[in-house]
Amino acid sequence: MKTVLVTGGAGFIGGNFSIALTPGGQYRVVNLDALTYAGHLETLKPLEKNPNHIFIHGDIRDRALVKTLLTEHAPDHIVNFAAESHVDRSIDSPGDFISTNVNGMFELLEAVRGYYSTLSGAKRDGFKFVHVSTDEVYGSLGPGDERFTEKTPYAPNSPYAASKAASDHLARAYHHTYGLPVNITNCSNNYGPYQFPEKLIPLLISKARRGEPMPVYGDGQNVRDWLYVKDHCEAIRLVMEKGRAGETYNIGGGAEMKNMDVVKMICAIMDELFPQSPHRPHEKLITFVQDRPGHDRRYAINAGKIEKELGWRPSETFPAGLRKTVQWYLDNEEWVAAVTRETYKGERLGVSGK
Ligand code: NAD
Questions:
Q1: Which end of the chain has the least Cβ crowding within 10 Å, N or C?
Q2: For the whole model, what pTM was predicted?
C-alpha cells in the first residue's frame, strides 16, 4: 500500500480526491489541512472510520511540522491542494493569498526537498510531487482565441491567479534546480459535491432553494470551462501515477459555458425538481450585480496533452454533472448548514466561476 500526503484535503477538491483515493486498499492518505473557513471535517465524514485515512490539523507554512510528517509517514507521493482559492477574497485581502499560496508553497517545497534527498531506490524513483493549480494563471481569452495549452504564457490578472502563478513557478524551479519530480496541473472551473457555497454553482443552488436573489456579475457573459470534480480527481490520480516528471498538464471539461447559461440551467433543474415551489419560475430570481474588478472574460482549456499521454477523458457531461450537483446540494443541506454556520458571512454577493 502506498502513502499519499494530501495537503488541503478538507477542502472541495482535496476532499473529493481523498474520498476517491482510499477505497480499493491501494492508498493510505495522510491529510494535512489548516481548516481555514474553506476546510471542514464534515467533508471528510465518509472517511471517519477508514483506517487508511489520517487527518492532521496543521499548516503547510509550518516547515517543522511538515518535515516531521514526512519522516513519520514516508509518503510515496504528495499532492498539494492547500491554497486560498477564492478570487473575490483575493481582491479584498490579497495578503492571505501571498502567505499561503506563495510562502506556504515555499515552506512545503523546502520540506519536501529535504525529504526527497533521503530517498533511494524504488521509493526515490517512484516519488512524485503534484501541485494542483488553475487555468487562471494564463489570463483571459477573447471570444475567438485559441484555448490555453501548456505553452500559453502566464498572464495572471487577479491576486489569486498571481499567487498561483508564483507557486507554479516555484514548483517548476524545484524540478529544474533540485531534480524534484514535480508535476503541475492547471485545471478549469470545478463543480460538484462539497464545494464551499461562496462559489457560483453551490451559491446559486442555495439562493434558488431559499427564493433569494440569484446574483450574476456584470452582464453574465463571462465564459468558464466546467469540469465535474470527480473527473478532475481522476486526472490528478493519473498524473500522480504516470505523469512525466517536470511536466505540466492542462485539465479541462471541454464544456465552455456563459455564466448566464449556467444560471438558467440551474433554474430549469430547480423548476423541474420543485414543481410546487412558490419561487417558480426560478429565473425570476436572477439579479445582475456590479461586476468583479478586473473580471476575466473567458477561460478555456485545451486538454489534448493529458488525453494523449495519459488517456484521460472527462466522463461527465455538463448537464448531467450539474443535475447530480443540484441533487447533491438538496440532499445535503446539513453539510451546507454546518460549513457555513461559523465562518462564512456572505461578504460579497456577486459571484463568478471561482
Ligand atoms: P478550497 O478553498 O475548497 O480548499 C482549500 C483547502 O486548503 C481548505 O481545506 C483549507 O483549509 C486548506 N488550506 C488553506 N490554507 C492552508 C494552509 N496554509 N495550510 C494547510 N491547508 C490550508 O479550494 P479548492 O477549490 O478545493 O481548490 C484546491 C486547489 O485547486 C487550489 O490550489 C486551487 O487553486 C486549485 N483549483 C481549484 C479550482 C476550482 O474550480 N475550485 C480549479 C482549478 C484549480
A1: N
A2: 0.95
